[in-house]
Amino acid sequence: MSTATSPASPLTHPHTSLGRLSFPRVIRSEWIKLRTLRSTFWTLISAVVLVVGIAALVAVAIPDKSVLVGQVPAGQRAAIEAQSSAFATSAATAGLTFASLVIAVLGVLVISGEFSTGQIRSSFTAVPRRFPVFAAKTLVLFVVAFLVGLVSSAASWAVAIPILNGKGYAGDLLSSDTLWAILGAGAYLGLVAVFALGVGAILKSTAGGIAGALGVLLVLPIIASLISGLTRTQWVADAQHYLISNAGQGLAGVANGDIEPWANVVTVLVWAAVAFIGGALLLQRRDA
């Protein structure tokens, strides 16, 4: 007797499903890349130290309310009383600008580092459509930067408010305004990371990406402020409120002119979205 075998029946491997490509697997690979970089740890630690440390220094440096009130003319004392709670916001968010610069550098390095080492070609070979790789990088980076911003901002408020309360200034850690400011600071740092990642993808260069991202975050507001102050041009003064850094400060509770809170949110989202879309489109069209 002979056993008949069917040539049409394929042999199946019991572990075939383990190699199936899916977006969660791409996210996992990008998370492994991010957390195994030594620069990631030190960059995030630097951001936390800047936010919390500068908040503590500013809170300690602010003079007692009684001393400050006694040093100003009688006509200005009412304004200081009305702006008492603003001192807590200013102290707690004093390090946010510096932290955003650090996070922006990390955002650029996440993508430009792969271009410089050639690892991006391996990523695109594994995921030929390319967009899932960029989307996964964006999602992982946003979540990490958001959580770091949330924790560091909460810590900065927790440090600054007791010091300022002891000096006679108003401030409540559990008030709705404070909680929204903490959430807004975390969201701002997360969106700054997305913006910088997009800039890095557009320029494909570490030096160029860092220069471009920091130029928009730091240099552009300075230039706009100088032009506005020297030329007294009203439209420049109005336009600078819609820069990502100024709107980000508004997200964290700092007054940004007469801009409504929702406008600050939309402004930062637009900056991040434009950079993300630009980077995604160029990644699809250019050689790695």
UniProtKB/TrEMBL annotation:
GO terms for molecular function: ABC-type transporter activity. Keywords: Membrane, Transmembrane, Transmembrane helix. The chain crosses the membrane at residues 41-62, 91-113, 134-159, 179-203, 210-230, 262-283. GO terms for cellular component: plasma membrane. This is ABC-2 type transport system permease protein.
